[in-house]
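Follow-up to my post from last week.
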Amino acid sequence: MGSKEKRGLDNKTMTKVSILYPHTRGARFDFDYYLSKHMPRSIELLSTHPGFRSVTVEQGVSGTEPDSPPAYVAACFYTFDSVESFVAAFMPHAQELQGDMRHYTDIAPQIQFNEIRIEKVSR
Amino acid sequence: MGSKEKRGLDNKTMTKVSILYPHTRGARFDFDYYLSKHMPRSIELLSTHPGFRSVTVEQGVSGTEPDSPPAYVAACFYTFDSVESFVAAFMPHAQELQGDMRHYTDIAPQIQFNEIRIEKVSR
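User reply:
Got it. Predicted complex:
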């Protein structure tokens, strides 16, 4: 196993902030606004923090059965060097970013902190 | 910022396979086995496929309130260049990997396919 694969286990633990929007019948989610306005602004604000490592923004496609709905319709994953760094990066902009959510969805996101235990990237 | 120019690291649409283990009262999850046996074996088998891009294995720490339980206790995210590549990489080993699950958990994972729409990595 390469060193990258073990990164979460030895020297530095990475924190993943997971923001999932559960698939909800009748709910509204404007991907155009989310992808062209909300997330670019969020990334602009948060990625300047020195603890920022990466972010992905994802669109749920399906469950394992073809054409089955995904459990969550959208997701955003921020990786920071620690929970403290994320909180420090986010808090000054919490009001703006949370206030902007009504422009693209009425789904309450499910937010949690994870620790990355194994990571492997193709060479 | 158009989402297209940010797709993946190389302007190709990337597929994320998300395998979440929901936090379940009274359920069993053996992280030692999962991190030292199951996932290393899974990564060994799947990462040889040319469509493999990356994988992370994560441990849920908390919700947004301190000491609140995370919605999912563990997660594995495989990034491949397409759903088809993932399926081709996984199917030959489905029986072994799925059969191994009982060694670390009795939680039924929530599996879905996502499309990565925005990705940004710290430089």
